[in-house]
């Protein structure tokens, strides 16, 4: 069960982070610089729907993995290297989640989009992409630490 949950967690993180990183560093800048503002908005809306599903899986499997990694107790969380790295990762996840909510709110703006909206979208997605890179770095570090229960 634990391996299946970890597999689902990693796949959904890859979907979320990969989508945001590619969108923030490649797709959004290309669409914005080509003045395809409405295409950027439509792309963002589709990406947001996909990421919402992946995020639900990330949260559910992340809670399970964290609980299991701490031996069924959250008491040792701040007292182990694994627990502290998990808290750091969680802080980046929450920042990225908040940024993603801002982007989703921007995507509710009606078409046609203006240059200003496209610029904001491009900047916010780039920031969210950087936060997702931090989440991936923390995840890699976390994977190489012994869980708190050990």
UniProtKB/TrEMBL annotation:
Residues 44-142 form the Copper resistance protein D domain. It is found in: Cell membrane. InterPro entries: CopC/D, Cu-R_CopD_dom. The keyword Transmembrane helix applies. Keywords: Cell membrane, Membrane, Transmembrane, Transmembrane helix. It is a multi-pass membrane protein. It comes from the Bacteria. It holds the Pfam family CopD. The chain crosses the membrane at residues 6-26, 87-107, 128-145. The keyword Membrane applies. This is CopD family protein.
